[in-house]
Amino acid sequence: MARIDLNNIRHAYMAAPKGDDDFALKRVHHTFDDGGAYALLGPSGCGKTTLLNIMSGLLRPTEGEILFDGRDVTGLSTEERNIAQVFQFPVVYDTMSVRDNLAFPLRNRGVAAGEIERRVNEILEMIGLADRAGQKARGLTADDKQKIALGRGLVRSDVSAILFDEPLTVIDPHMKWVLRSQLKELHRRFAFTMVYVTHDQTEALTFADQVVVMNEGEIVQIGTPEELFERPNHTFVGYFIGSPGMNVIPVRVEGAAAHIGAHRVALPGIAALDGAARTELGVRPEYVRIGAEGIPVRIDRVEDTGRRKIVRAALDGRIIAAVMPEDMTVPAEPHVTFDPAGINLYANSWRVDLAQPGRGAGA
Amino acid sequence: MTKTWNNRAWFLVLPVLLLVAFNAIIPLMTVVNYSVQETFGNNLFFFEGTKWYQDVLASPRFHASLLRQFMFTFIILAIEVPLGVAIALTMPRSGPWVSVCLVLMALPLLIPWNVVGAMWNIMALPDIGLLGYGLNKLGIPYNFTRQPFAAWFTVVLMDVWHWTSLVVLLAYAGLRSIPEAYYQAAKIDGASRWSVFRFIQLPKMNRVLTIAVLLRFMDSFMIYTEPFVLTGGGPGNATTFLSIDLVKAALGEFNLGIAAAMSIIYFLITLLVSWIFYTLMMRGDEQ
Q1: Residue of A54, A78, A169 to mutate for B, most B C-beta atoms under 10 A
Q2: pLDDT band at A357 (very low <50, low <70, confident <90, very high)
Q3: Touching A: B residues 8-27, CB under 8 Å
Q4: Which end of chain A is flanked by fewer CB atoms within 10 Å, N or C?
């Protein structure tokens, strides 16, 4: 196990990168704590796989350095870093049996036969392939192949970290849940440092203690699932996490109030905006209340998801989403209010703190 | 979807039936026809039954050329397949050199067979050819028109030069189809270069190599033009392979019955060996 420090990592796939746009990873500076379970979350092409491959040593970053427990490993190969990594699409050695596949990483490192036997049997049990241990890997389904690939990642007990690159993409939904809980369990038992790349927010939020949200080659926010949900640092995080995503409404801010067209919304604090070009209000649908008071809206449609209703309403010509309890009905003249606890203010897409009047800068 | 049954649809397969009949079945049947009869010209035929077959199968001359044929095919397969795979492994996986390598590799395949024979004939001439003259200058006595070993050496070298490229191109295509993740996983698993070849590259090349071996087997087993131009089957009968022998029997000696029976036997051997190769190599592929 190891702590992983990424110091000002930048990476470009082209030979002579010039502008920021040439970099697949713009600047990443972050520490993954020893024994932590992290998720790298972001849309396709945001640089999360690049970052993962830089950590495992499959890619050498254009700039910056990587430290494992304080030791510079930037120039070291994957093998010297002692990393395990599981890829998106199942990689198995077709001509080997399931058992040999799992034993392969251990045999290559000269682990004693008895120890190999013990580890392999344990993993076989865990991935549920014990009854097919002698079978050739070639004939297995994609599901089973990916389980072998996962198993090969987990079979070594002395790794610095285990990296997962969207490993459950090909697994069917039921099995996904089972394997995810097993990974979580394994993490609790052995305290591996685990980094899990995914574009699926449910996967990220259920697996990780800390979620690293990336967009366009940058880390946008790092936080617990709760922080990401309650206080998204960037409007992108607001959109990307939560279903439906956060409502982002352009506003004009005057002191402790935001104006949406002719309507006024009281803010829980005063923001230091420094004349930002663009100010937006971010409110999660969970904090939008439909009732008889507040700002008048026109109901566009209501989606019943079973446990709750999602209301799409037009506010000042812009559609916003609101979550309503299953047993509530939309009033005849609907209005909305925003719960102050769920109000975030964004200047140029980044969140600004709302200082409490009197405690703030004294404005 | 509702299915319509109309027996007139059979007419639609008629063209392909005719095509197959004219280019395969009818010529083959003519040969079968010749192989069971004796003719002295004037369109007079006498039925001979299996006599020609018995003659061919008992003939030492046929045994000798069949043996030479198997030896030749075995040698060139043993050289071209490993060499082709080795060259494919050293070729770049991406970048501007890929197309340069591919064009260089494809060049020998574009040269007509008789030209290849003529080229190597000139090159191997002991008095003026680069190869022949060079070898003799180095103190190695070399004359492919007199020494059977030199003749074999030249024929094999020519075939390796001409056809290794085919194996290279097929093997390269197989290598290129391996996703990058396999190499990355192998690195993570600490696999050696040999393990990568043994457990990733070779299994993934299995299918294309089957095709390469089959094509090279059939082609080399039926080789005619190049050795005919190069050595004419000599010195003596040293490089008289089956097809050269067949042409000698049919056109040189006008033994139509013998030649026809030989053709059929030749055809059946090629078919049988191809089938054995195919079955053996595909066996590992099924589950």
Answers
A1: A78
A2: low
A3: none
A4: C
Q: Could you tell me the pTM of the whole model?
A: 0.74
Assign domain B66-241 to its CATH architecture.
Orthogonal Bundle (1.10)
Q: Domain locations in chain B?
A: 22-58+255-287, 66-241
Residue whose token pair is 């649809």: B9
Tell me the residues of chain B between 154 and 213 that have a Cβ less than 8 Å away from chain A.
Answer: 179, 181-182, 184-185, 187-192, 195, 199-200, 203-204
Chain A residue closest to B197 (CA)? A93
CATH code of A243-355, in short, is 2.40.50.140
Rounded (10°) CA dihedral A316, A322, A324, A329: 20
Which has the closest alpha carbon to A197: A189, A188, A207? A207
Q: Which of A78, A88, A149 sits opposite B187 (nearest CB)?
A: A78
- With CA atoms as reference, report the closest residue to B64 among B257, B231, B265, B245: B245
CB burial of A248-283 (b: ≥16 within 10 Å; e: otherwise) equals: bbebebeebebebeeeebebbbbbeeeebeebbbbb
Minimal CA separation from B179 to chain A, in Å: 9
What are the sequence ranges of the domains in chain A? 4-235, 243-355
A350 — contact with chain B (CB < 8 Å)? Answer: no
Write the pLDDT tens digit of every residue in A50-69. Answer: 888 888 888 888 888 888 88
- Assign domain A4-235 to its CATH superfamily: P-loop containing nucleotide triphosphate hydrolases (3.40.50.300)
Q: Pick the residue from chain A with its C-alpha nearest to B206.
A: A95
Residues in B 44-103 with any Cβ partner in A closer than 8 A: none
